[in-house]
Design a protein that fits this description.
By secondary structure, the protein is mainly alpha-helical. The protein has two helices and no strands. Helix 1 packs antiparallel against helix 2 (about 40-70). The two termini are about 20 Å apart.
Length: about 70
C-alpha cells in the first residue's frame, strides 16, 4: 500500500463514511411507504459519486506527493 499521511487517510475514511451513510438512507428509502422523489434520489447518488471521486483524487495526489518526495531523497 502507498505511504500516505494519516490526515489523508482520515479524510478518505470520513468521505467514504458519508457515502456509506447516504447509501444506507437510500436502502431504507426502498423499504419506505413514502419513498423520496427521483430528483432527491439522483442528488443523493451524485453526492455518493462525488465523495468517492474526491477520495480517489486525494489518494492519488497524496501518493504522487510521497513518490516525488522519495525521488528527491
Amino acid at each position: 500500500m502507498a505511504n500516505i499521511s494519516l490526515d489523508a487517510i482520515n479524510t478518505i475514511n470520513t468521505k467514504l463514511g458519508q457515502a456509506n451513510t447516504i447509501t444506507t438512507l437510500l436502502m431504507v428509502d426502498c423499504d419506505s411507504d413514502m419513498p423520496i422523489n427521483d430528483e432527491l434520489r439522483a442528488y443523493a447518488l451524485d453526492a455518493v459519486s462525488d465523495l468517492i471521486n474526491d477520495s480517489k483524487k486525494l489518494f492519488r495526489s497524496e501518493t504522487e506527493r510521497k513518490e516525488a518526495k522519495n525521488e528527491r531523497v
